[in-house]
Design brief:
Largest sheet: none
Helix content: over 70%
Strand content: under 5%
Distance between the termini: 47 Å
Amino acid sequence: MVAWGALAARAAGAVATGVAGVAVVEGVKKLSGGRAVHQSAVAVTTLGLKVSRAAETGAERIRLNTADVVAEARERLGEQAPPPGAVEKHDHEH
């Protein structure tokens, strides 16, 4: 029973925070005519896209380096590395 009370209190706090946030945004819109808020949103979104693309580039670089290491390790074992994108077949049952 105590858990429900704590959950309800947290939910009420989250709702109050959301309502306060909306009130602040609406107040800023009224004061600035909405243009400054729009420009800020565009600037933040632009930054987010740049960061996302940089992360994707880094992840792809890591994936390619890992594939190179695995291919070299297989070569040292005398195995032929499958071409990129090929699905490996298991010649045993699980």
